Amino acid sequence: MSSPPAIDRALLQQLAELARLHLPQDRLGVLLPRLQRVLAAFEALRDLPTSEAEPSPYPRPLPMALRLDAAEPALPLEQVLANAPRSAAGAFVVPRVVEG
Amino acid sequence: MNALSQLSAAAIVRGLRAGDFLARDVTSACLDRIAQLDPTLHAFLGCRPEAALANAAAVDAANRRGEPLGALAGVPVAWKDNFVLAGEIAAAGSRMLEHYRSPYTATVLKSLEAAGAVLLGRTNMDEFGMGSSTEASAFGPTRNPWGRDLTPGGSSGGSAAAVAAELCPLALGSDTGGSVRQPASLCGITGLKPTYGRVSRYGLIAYASSLDCVGALARTAEDLALWLDVASGLDPADPTSAPCHGGVFDRLHDRRDLRGIKIGLPWELNGPGLDDEVAAATRNAAGHLRELGAELVECSLPNVAHAVATYYLIATAEAASNLARYDGVRYGLRRDVAGRCEAMITASRSTGFGEEVQLRILLGTFALSYGYHDAYYGQATRARTLLRQDFERTFATCDLLLCPTSPLAAFPLGSRIDDPLSMYLCDALTVPASLAGLPALSQPCGFASDGRPIGMQCMAPAMRDDLLLQVAHVYQQHSEHHLRRPLP
User: Fold this and answer.
1) Are B85 and B317 in contact (CB under 8 A)?
2) Which of A7, A26, A38 to mutate to probe the B interface, most B CBs <10 Å?
3) Of B197, B216, B252, B262, which sits 20 to 30 A from B109 (CA to CA)?
4) Chain A residue with minimal CA distance to B209?
């Protein structure tokens, strides 16, 4: 007997909220079977014995040389704001977050 | 003499130094060809003819004054839409960044400029590098020069099509799970994914940071050696970059044959699931390598069967994290809606990201979420260790590994785009080297009966990019697959 899908409708909706994505019902209906099919194909990985293996967040050891902890000139403010969808008074504009 | 747009990068550099032609004429020839063919191919998302011609004129002026020319002087180069160039749009194939103009320049583009390359324009790609056909571009698909109803592969499909159609001799790509090698294979050209860390990624728009590599596509291995020497090295702006030896191009011609080279054929990557013609072409190429002096041995990578799952869990987890920065505040698309700040962020992301990107963000969010993290993302990072150990064991007795680049030749546009799993399986042969951070190269090794090109992939131990290029160069000196072109 095959195992139940790793993702159901409720979990997918919750993931969308976490990822800040709006999934209308029709999109959810398309994405859910696709994700279920992908995860079903990945199930065998869960059975791979890995208890002896250390995790590898990177592919190989790297020097990971850090720069000196010294302040360097930043981009000019007008360049930083040039790509902002909305800006005013030298700042990014966001919707109101504090009521009052 | 060949038409100037047909010249390799190395031939352009040699010709300029000999005074055979001007850099301006080479650039004009490429721009003319782009104007002629790109309305159909859609390899480019943006060209900068005036700036390119000015760059070329500056190279000619320096040449006239007798100044030393850079290693890529006068060579027209295209770059994938996920590299940033100051003042130019870098959209990463996404509506999210459609109007984004970078305030700074990627290190690899600076290196190209310093070497005298002429920056032509930016090429089409799957959105944020997430795809294997360039159909996931928000700006429409690129067509394969070998057949207009075929995909060029992806995600660097625009770069691959541009080089294959002789719109330029050299193009930058990025390779996270095969995005340089697979389109190189499907378009009949040569593509290099260097060792992870060998080329700085500063200024490459991030997809999956433990996998992303800057790569390049050209029509010869010789041109990729030229490029690698220009692009390699430690960059203080990229902590994952590593010091490495240059001189790859100078040593390229040291080897006349392949005597003393032991090439492993992992049976897991050379048998099951391959198209018959792809398997046959790779077998024939392996035989040719043996005739050139290489020793062929059977070998095994026992954990490679889990590579696709491992790759997609790690890549999507990292993508979910990297793409969290697109919130409609500092840059990128914004959709203002009534309600709190979160509503604006959600509306912006839901509008700006395409279907495949949203699917991968959701998959990555799942792999990282409470209750699933260890079973999926954690398990994948441990499986990655086992795969890396497989490679280490194999490279203890082999110099290189060989397999096809893609299980199948170029496939029709529209045939896989609605089935993510079948698209992901196209990457089965390229993701193992990505997970282990190894250098890998794809080059043409034959053609299907209907004329579609077939590519083979060689993988080498870390930082042996030089050996990969030497072997590819020897093969190309004794074969003609890489010389066949799709368009007059």
Assistant:
1) no
2) A38
3) B252
4) A58
What is the residue-wise DSSP string for B413-468?
TTSSTT-HHHHHHTTTTTHHHHHHT--EEEEEEEE-TTS-EEEEEEE-STT-HHHH
How many Cβ atoms sit within 10 Å of the Cβ of residue B40?
A: 12
Q: What is the pLDDT of residues A2-59, one digit of tens each?
A: 566 789 999 999 999 999 999 999 999 999 999 999 999 999 999 999 999 999 999 9
Q: Is B378 on the interface with A (CB under 8 A)?
A: yes
Above 70 in pLDDT, residue B486? yes
Nearest-angstrom CA–CA distance, B136 and B92: 11
Torsion angle of C-alpha atoms B461, B465, B467, B470, degrees rounded to 10: 160
Task: Give the number of other CB atoms < 10 A from CB of residue B103.
Answer: 16
Nearest residue on chain B to A12, alpha-carbon basis: B362
Nearest by Cα to B133 from B207, B67, B208, B185: B185
CA distances from B423 to A32, B150, B158, B311 (A): 17, 14, 18, 13
Polymer length of chain A: 100
Give the span between the Cα atoms of B466 and B294, in whole angstroms: 17
Give me the amino acid identity at B183.
Answer: P
Long-range CB pairs of B478-481, under 8 A, 24+ apart, other chains included? B478/B288, B478/B292, B479/B285, B479/B288, B479/B445, B481/B188, B481/B443, B481/B444, B481/B445, B481/B446, B481/B447, B481/B453
What per-residue confidence (pLDDT) applies to A6? 85
Task: Please check whether residue B107 is in contact with residue B373, taking contact to mean a CB–CB distance below 8 angstroms.
Answer: no
pLDDT tens digits, B205-221: 999 999 999 999 999 99
Please check whether residue B345 is in contact with residue B327, taking contact to mean a CB–CB distance below 8 angstroms: yes
pLDDT at A100: 64
In B198-272, alpha helices (H): 221-231, 248-251
Confidence tier at B316 by pLDDT (50, 70, 90): very high
* Residue type present at position B20: D
pLDDT in tens, B319-354: 999 999 999 999 999 999 998 899 999 999 999 999
CA distance B210 to chain A (A): 5
End-to-end CA distance of chain A: 58
Report pLDDT for A66: 77
Task: Name the DSSP class of B50.
Answer: H
Q: Check if A84 contacts B (Cβ < 8 Å).
A: yes
Element spanning B9, H or E:
helix B9-18
Active site amino acids of B? 80, 155, 179
Question: Within a 10 A sphere around the Cβ of B91, how many other Cβ atoms?
Answer: 26
**HSE on the CB side for B294, CA within 13 Å?**
26
Q: What is the number of helices (H) and of strands (E) in chain A?
A: 4, 2
Closest partner residue to B103 (CB to CB) among A22, A57, A75 is A75
**What does the longest C-alpha to C-alpha distance in chain A come to?**
63
Q: Is residue A1's pLDDT more than 80?
A: no
Burial of B171 (0-12, 13-18, 19+ CB in 10 A): buried
How high is the mean pLDDT of chain A? 91
Q: Do B6 and B28 touch, CB atoms closer than 8 A?
A: no
